[in-house]
Structure formats: C-alpha cells, structure tokens
Amino acid sequence: MPESKEDSTISEAISEAEIKDIPRQTPPLPDELLICLLQMTRLKDSPCSETTLLSGLPLVDQRLTPELFVRAATRAGLEAKVVKRDLADISTIVLPIVLLLKDNKAVVLNSVDKPKGSAVIIETTSQGDVERDISFDKLNGLYSGFSIYVKAELRFDSVEDLVSKKKTDHWFWSVMKSSWRIYRDVLFASFFINLFAIATPLFVMNVYDRVVPNQAIETLWVLAVGVFVVYLFDIILKGLRGYFIEVAGKKSDIILSGFLYERVLGARYDERPNSIGSFASQFREFDSVRNFYTSSSIAALVDIPFIFLFLLVIYYVGGPLVWVPIIAIPVTLIYSLLMQKPIKNAIEQTFVSSAQKNSILIESLVGLESVKVLGAEGFLQSLWEKSVGHIAHWGQRMRMLSLSVTLFSGFVQQFANVVIVIVGVYLIAERELTMGALIASVMLAGRALGPISQIATLLVNYDQTKTALSALDDIVSKTQERNPEKPFVKRPSFKGAIHFNKVTFHYPEEKQAALENVSFTIKPGEKVAIIGRIGSGKTTIQKLLLGLYQPTQGSILFDGIDSQQIDPADLRAHIGHVPQDVVLFAGSVKSNIVYGAPNTEDADVLNVAEVAGVKEFVDKHPLGFDRPVGERGQALSGGQRQSIGIARALLGQPSMCLMDEPTSGMDNSTESLIKQNLSTTLKDSTVILVTHKTSLLSLVDRVIVLDGGKLIADGQKESVLDALKKGQLRVAQT
Question: Which residue of 275, 277, 444, 468 lies most exposed, with the fewest beta carbons within 10 A?
Fold first, then answer.
C-alpha cells in the first residue's frame, strides 16, 4: 500500500516558526499531555508507566510540553511529530492522534465521522480509557490548529540492521546534517559574496585602462554607482550569511549539549569516570567543537571552492600572472601539512594536562576541609604547579607552531604579490598587459590566497577539534541504563519480593569479587538487617538492588522478574533509599526533601518530615523549611543531613526501603524517636537495613550475615545474634 500524504507528514519536522505558535501558557492540572501520551501507549499496544515516560526529561513546570511529548514518546517505542493541520484536513488514516486544544488542553482523537459531523475522543476514568462522542464543529472550535501524530517506531529485525543504522547516524554529524538547508543558503550567499569580490578589481582596471586615458568622467560615475550597488548587496549578504551560521549554531548547540548531558546522566553507574575533574574538562571541550563547525570556520570553508573562480579571473585579465598564485597555494599548504603532526602532539599533551589540572582543582575544592586538616596544601600546590608548567610548555609550543604557519602563509602571500608586480612590469613593457590589469591581478591574487591563509589556521584548529570530538565520542559511547532497542517489562507497582539467585559481583577493574555466590529470598513486607565486617559486601547488595550495578553472575528478581528486565526508573521510583553518606544539593530543606518529586503536596512533606525528625530542627530556625542547607549540605550537621535523607526516602510511600547506617550521625534520643516512627511508617514495606548498630536491629525480624562477600548466616534475628554471641559465627559485630 503506497504511503499516503498524511502518513508522509508524520516524518516531517515542524518548522521553528510553527513551533513558536504552539500555546505555551502554564498547563493546568492534571498534565493533559501526559494523560494523552499514556492513552496513546495503550492504544499502540506499548503501555508504559508515568515514571518511565518522564524520567530524565527537563519538564516545564513539571509537565510535558509538545516538544517534550515527542521525546517522551520514544521511551514507549513510538515516533511522534508536531504538525500544523486544519482539523478538516486530518486524514482518518493517521488516527488516533493527539489534538492540542486552546487553553493548553489536549485530547486523543480516535475517529471521525464527517458525514454525521461527529468525532470520538478518548477519556481516562477510574474504569480505564473510555470513548466519548463530541460534535465535530465543537471540537473544531476548541482545536488550536496543532496536533501530534504518533506511530509505532521502526524496530530492526536483525543485529546487522541495527549496526548499519548506528554506523550511519553519528550523534554529531546527524545533527549538523539536519541543518543542511541553512548551510545550503550559506553556500548560496557565499557564491554571490565571492562573485561581488571581483567587482573592485574590475572597477579599478577599467578606471586605469579606460576612464583615465580617455577622461571619461561619465563612465567613471556609471562604474562607481554600479560598484556601490554591488557593495550594498555584498554587506547585506554577509550579514545574512553570518545570521544563518549563528542560527544553525544555536540550533545545534541546544540539541547537542542537551543530548550530551542526557548521555552523561543516563550512563550506567559502572561506567562513571574515575576523575570527575577530568571528565568535566572533557565535557567542556564541546564548546571548541561547536565553535569550529558552527561559526566563522564554516564561512572560511565555503570560500575555498571560489579560489578557482579568482584564478580563472586572474587568467582572464592577467594571463600568465595566474601561475604565481597557482605555485604559492601548494607551497603554503605543504608547509601547513608538515606542521600538523608536531601541532597535534602538542595539542594532545595540552589536553591531557588540562584535564589533570582541572581534576586537581575540583578535588581540592571539594575536599578543602580535609586538605587543611591534613596539611596537604604543599603537596597539592606542587601537583598544581607541575600541571600548569606542563600546560605552559606544550601550550607555548603549540602556539609557536601555529604562529609559524600563519607567518609563513602571510609571507608567501606578500612574496606572491611582489612577484606578480615584477612579472607584470615586464609584461607591460612588452605590451602584453595593461596597468589596470596588473593592479586587478594583484588584488585578485590577494583574494585567491586569502582562503589559503584561513586553511592554514583551520588545519591548526582542526587537530584540537578532532581531539575534543574524540573525547566527546567516549562520553556518548558509554553504555546507557535505558537501551531504546531493549523493551522493559512494564511494572506499575511492586509488592516488594526480592530474590538473590547465586549472585557474584566484581566492581569494574577489580579482580576480587565483592559478592560471591550469594542467594537469599525476602518476602513482601519482611524486615531484614544485613550485618558483617567492613568491606563484606553489605552496601554492594543495596547498590545492586538499586540497579546501579548489574551482577557479574547470577540474577536478582523483584516480584519474580529479573531486575535487568525492569526499567531502572520504574524500579527506583518504588525504592526508598537512605545512603550512608547523604548528599544534599544547594537550596532549602524542603527543596532537598522533594528533589526528585517537586510536585509533592506540602501535607506529604510535613508528614515525612515529622517521621524523619526534620521538624525537630527546622522548627527552631526562623526560615523553617526554607532554611538553606548550603553546598553539599555543609550548613547542616551529619545527623540533620541523615534526617533529610530519611524524609526523602519515605516520600511516595515506597514498597521497598533500603537503609545504610541511617542514624550513624544522630544522638540516642533522636535515633530512638526515628526508630519508633519508622516501625509504624514502614510496617507494610519491605525493609533492608545495613547497620553496625545493635540498637537498630529492633526494626527487623531477620538478620543476614556477610563475611568476605559470602553469606554465612541467614535466619531469625534472635537465633543469629545468639550464634554471634556464642562465637559460632566468625564475624565481627560492632
């Protein structure tokens, strides 16, 4: 069946001007676009949870926009495009679709009966999705003129097809290619700009050869007016070319920087960089890549083909003089190419040293307190100065090599002009050339050799850009937690059953196993403590449960489903986690409690704050919940940070709760209060508690003992603790 006109529209991107016309006021509650997307996933037999669709998206006022709808749809294996279309022109072939209504509302249009003047829309009720009839004219009156077409995404039948697609769709070049129409216009403008550049030499030549000898003043003014008109068009086209290049650069910048950051946040935890400072330095190199390909470099590149145009004109007006620039051009290029290898080496050395320098800076600032206490300022100062010295040495070498290329190309250009004049004088003496033709040839030679000088500079910048792009490729190539080609089992809820099946795990680049052949089962609602020596694998188990790492061998099941078949966002949305070292972000106490769920009602915040003991210290502060916590929570004590961490974990009433030394920084009275609150709040949740404190074991009924990554005991709390006291288990308990 041939593709219809409406079907082909699905694959067309909406223009930037049309996107701006979409209503963008603050959308009302509830998020109607999200509701429509959930409906479409069910209609397309690809149901997804709200968490899966929204995880990691930069929501606007915590709601979807039409553009974000398109990105969210890909999570469900759907392709979506926003199009501008009159309601009467929408073909029934593309239904169901999402209609964007006025006042920021949206609805799924399922079918249309034009003869009867009616339409069928989908509504979500407590009983599920139901169809409702509506008058076509009434719906048309509500319609904003924009709709979102949705269809199932193309899936590859073989690995070869997938590999072929990945080879052709490079993350950087595919975005650059999407702006080909803009670059086409830039090339078109460049053609006329370079064509207009011929006007001045021809004007001068005609003045010297015709106007001056014949005193033709009228001809002079005709030529002058003509060249002024050319200059007017020239400045307009140069302005437009610069504008087009900036527009393409802005578009690419927004898309690529967002994509890179999404890849960073979406990468698997076991592929995180060893040095955050070095990684941040690599990430910043995106600016140099973007500037090279989306700024003046483009203008220089598009000018290169017009060298042949100038050579042709030189040959037309100056004859044999054309051989001078023809010889000068390869001489300049050869020297530039010879310098590429030493310049590339200097750039790579500078790149590595810059990453190391940035790493030292970040680590010293983050651990400034420890640096001062340990008296390590001198050691860090020495590392810093060595890095700076290394950068200065190779940076100077790179700049001098680059300067030599620039100076040499300038020298060749000046020397070529002198040679043209000398040869031209001899040709004039032999009456084979006019004075005007000589002057025009000198001017045209400058225009022909100008791009060559730019090429020399571009070759220098190219090596730096290539190195930076290679570093960015490493970032993009990191394995992502959510593979778009791998469908997940949809889990809107969890009961809390957990099963470790012969799990063995090695940390990246570690030969010794952190866990070895560990098996246990936890029933829904069961309360379990994991105890053992330092480094026995207690925290590792929690990281595996959170999906931060995957088992080297064996499997982890949640409600009977392998964890690798569950969307990590779905899994973590149902797990409340209190880490041993709670990380807070700059902001208020409240903003840190609701950091992952900013739409939380104040009543829920107050409830978890009461349970976690947060109210104990915010009530004593004049700003209350607006009290600033400082960068990384430095304005709070360790116990206060842990209270916020507990409140954050309890938000949303998770079916599973993982706690790693949750009260290690608290006093006994606060700990006692929180234990009492947690025993009530988590009575229906599965709890896994990692602790060295015997006092916290009152929260659990069962104890698992680890030693050296192996499970050595698992049973009722009283029996396991009794065995520990009697020395029947060789494990240290503190």
Answer: 275
Q: pLDDT, tens digit, for every residue of 573-628?
A: 889 999 888 888 888 888 888 887 777 788 888 888 888 888 888 888 888 888 88
Q: Please state the φ and ψ torsions of residue 245, each to the nearest 5 degrees.
A: -65, -40
49, 114 Cβ separation under 8 angstroms: no
Tracing tokens 């070095």 back to the chain, one arrives at 278
Instruction: Look at residue 281 in the predicted model and tell me its pLDDT.
Output: 67
Residue among 601, 481, 491, 482 nearest 50 (CA): 491
Q: Which amino acid belongs to residue 310?
A: F
Among 549, 573, 574, 567, which Cα is nearest to 486's? 567
* CA atoms of 140 and 99, how far apart (whole Å): 10
Contact at 8 Å (CB) between 476 and 260?
Answer: yes
Q: In what order do the strands lie in the sheet with 118-125?
A: 78-84, 143-152, 97-101, 106-113, 118-125, 128-135
199-230 residue pLDDT tens: 888 888 888 888 888 888 888 888 889 889 98
Q: What distance in Å separates the CA atoms of residue 681 and residue 437, rounded to the nearest whole number?
A: 93
Q: Find tokens 């929501």 and name the residue.
A: 59
372 Cβ contact list (under 8 Å, min separation 6): none
The residue among 197, 196, 212 whose CA lies nearest residue 435 is: 212
CB neighbourhood size of 359 (10 A) = 21
Q: What does the block give as tokens for 407?
A: 């100076």
- Please return the burial class of 80, using the count of CB atoms within 10 Å of its CB with bins 0-12, 13-18 and 19+: buried
Question: Residue 455 and residue 3: Cα distance in Å, rounded?
Answer: 46
Using DSSP, state whether 634 is helix, strand or coil.
coil
For 208, which DSSP code?
I
pLDDT of residue 526: 93
C-alpha to C-alpha distance for 559 and 569, rounded to whole angstroms: 16
Q: 103, 105, 85: which is closest to 146 by C-alpha?
A: 85
Distances (CA, A) of 220 to 203, 208, 274, 436: 9, 10, 71, 14
Helix axes 323-338, 307-318, angle to 10 degrees: 150
